[in-house]
Amino acid sequence: MGNAQKKSAGPSSGVASPARSGAREGNPGSGERKNTALANGAHTAEGERRGDEEETGSTGAHGGENLDAPAGDLPPALARLKNEGNMLFKRGQFGLALHNYSRVIEGLSGAGIDSPEDLCILYSNRAACYLKDGNCTDCIQDCTSALELRPFSLKPLLRRAMAYEALERYRKAYVDYKTVLQIDSSVQAAHDSVHRITKQLIEQDGPDWREKLPEIPNVPISAQQHRREEPSAEVLQARAERAEQEKARRAEARFTLLKQEGNDLVKRGEFENAVEKYSECVALKPAECTVYTNRALCFLKLERFAEARQDCDSALKLEPDNKKAFYRRALAHKGLKDFLSSSSDLQEVLRLDPNVHEAEQELQEVTVLLRESLLESHTQG
Fold first, then answer.
1. How far apart are CA 290 and CA 146, in angstroms?
2. What's the CA gap between 138 and 42, in Å, rounded?
3. DSSP structural state of residue 169
């Protein structure tokens, strides 16, 4: 604890002076680091943004900023500086907020005030500024100082994990994320990051990646946040929406795969197997017209004309001007000896597109068959 407080007194301790914090805000190098952080997902956690607001919230009676609100055990002048830093942070002025937090840290040390809890929050808040600015190294340093004061504090751990991940120090990031989940298993950002980093570690360290990890600390029960209450309706709705979106995404991917497999089987002449693939597609997306016309083609090749006609009927309900459905239904009618219906469908194809030569040829043939059929019926009568 003493070391963390001494850290803010000297210029070499990593504490930003007013001039230093202002320089950081316009530092081109920090912008490059920030881009790296964003590429690794370090600044995308909604839970982290909510955490900033919880630590940095001081509002007045009418929802405005109350700069004179009490702030822990801080004297009024330092409390006002901290509240102003909170306001600047919320407005996205991270360099100016960092400057305020640094002045409060220096003020605490200079006044000899021993307030580990307030100092921990200040380091954590300043770390959030560093993280937003892409300065991951100083973010890690401030988070570590906060954790020395209050071990297993959730927000410093989460912010340090994000900074480690942005710097591609995946082993340390993994340990911090896993520690966060011991404290509060509901932090979705930590779950997502653990999955993401696990893939990176497997690529980096191979199948024995776990053996190369630093030791993951055991969080004492007193530091764990046990949430036994039922989730709110908003949370349940959000979970249901995410689950539905994931289900739809998987179904779409499965549909695309099955359809492609069906198309490949058709090219190889394996029509029975293609029918199975297209039938699975119909179960996943019953409103997809092309699946019905594709399966109808397979049924025609297998001389299952009634099923081919039924699929074409389904396709035409979805797309009333589908030439392919009319043409294949005409062939199905022809196979069923219903030459009049076949002729009608072929004429519809030519109405939609007069350049379909196959339809012209079929129409000529069907017309001959229709005349023969009528002549035969007349003769029998």
1. 60
2. 15
3. -
Provide CB contacts within 8 A for 146, sequence distance 6+.
4, 119, 120, 121, 123, 124, 127, 153, 156
Sorted by sequence, the CB contacts under 8 Å of residue 331 that are 6+ apart come out as 300, 305, 308, 342, 362
Residue 180: Cβ within 10 Å count: 25
Alpha helices in the chain (DSSP H): 2-7, 18-25, 28-39, 46-55, 76-90, 94-111, 116-133, 136-149, 154-166, 170-183, 188-205, 233-267, 271-284, 289-301, 305-318, 323-335, 339-352, 357-380
Contact 258, 281 (CB under 8 A): yes
Q: Give the CA dihedral 139, 140, 143, 147, nearest 10 degrees.
A: -170
Residue 112: predicted pLDDT:
80
Q: List C-alpha distances in Å: 253 to 42, 290, 315.
A: 28, 16, 22
CA distance 102 to 221: 33
Instruction: Give the C-alpha separation, 179 to 256, whole Å.
Output: 40
| Residues 321, 327, 328, 331, Cα dihedral to 10° | 150
**Could you tell me if 118 and 125 are in contact, meaning their C-beta atoms sit under 8 angstroms apart?**
no
DSSP state of 187: -
Please provide the size of the chain in residues.
381
Give the SS3 label for residue 41: coil
Query: In degrees, to the nearest 5, what angle opens at C-alpha 19 toward C-alphas 15 and 20?
Result: 40
Q: Kindly report the pTM of this predicted structure.
A: 0.48
Q: Could you say which DSSP state residue 328 is in?
A: H
State the number of CA atoms in the 13 A half-sphere of 30 facing the CB: 21
Residue-wise pLDDT for 193-252, tens only, equals 999 999 999 999 998 899 999 999 999 888 887 654 556 788 888 888 999 999 899 999
Q: Determine the 3-state secondary structure of 59 from DSSP.
A: strand
Instruction: Write the DSSP string, 95-132.
Output: HHHHHHHHHHHHHHHHHT---HHHHHHHHHHHHHHHHH
